[in-house]
Amino acid sequence: MWAGMGDEAELEAITATGAKTIKIIKPYADNDMIYRRIEHAEKCGVLAMGMDIDHAFNGRGQYDNVLGFPMSPKTLDEIKGFIKATKLPFVIKGVLSEQDAYKCLEAGAKGIVVSHHHGILNYAVPPLLVLPKIAKVIDRYIPIFVDCGVESGIDAFKALALGATAVSVGRELMTPLSENGAEGVRVRIREMTEELAGAMARTCSKDIEAIDASIIWKK
Fold this sequence. Notes:
There is one protein chain. This protein folds into two domains: 148 residues, Alpha-Beta Barrel (TIM Barrel); 69 residues, no CATH class. The strands form two sheets. It has a seven-stranded parallel β-sheet with strand order 1-2-3-6-7-8-9, covered by helices on one side. α1 links the parallel β1 and β2. It is built from seven helices and nine strands; from the N terminus they run βαβαβββαβαβαβαβα. It starts with a strand and ends in a 17-residue tail after the last helix. The chain is α/β, with parallel strands linked by helices. α1 packs parallel to α2, α4 crosses α5 and α6 crosses α7. The mean pLDDT is 93.
């Protein structure tokens, strides 16, 4: 699972359940806060951590402010510093171009998330549209995660076919979570997994690695 915004107590409670967790840290204007969050995440025993680079600005072109914390864009050297501050894999979220992908590799990221933060920028390129170009740059060197608009197992199937290593699902699980708690989430994940299995069976994809981009057709 992925943990985003939230205080230290929340992350401690999450990891105490034993869930394998990737902690995404916002691009706080205060770099010391970022380093403290990195250190805390390590102590909590997270699987990996990373940064949500697309939350530096708000919709009016100003530096963003999230839950009272000012944000700021980060230079390549700053990101390299964050990556070097931990022995854990560091993931960059908010990748939407080939240039982004090249910079992530240069920085030493151990994974990327192709994402526009569920429409943080109006008319942003859909992640699945740019995914094949990004996958070509990455060339299987590091994992590629994809999120935004994944509402079914078929959506996951398309993302995997176009180059994703794994697919993240968030908003699709919010309604079943609010209505039926953990059981609602379990049921919806099972349904999506069955949808994925159905698409794989009907396209003769024997496993995840065998899902081929040639089966995706565009108008």
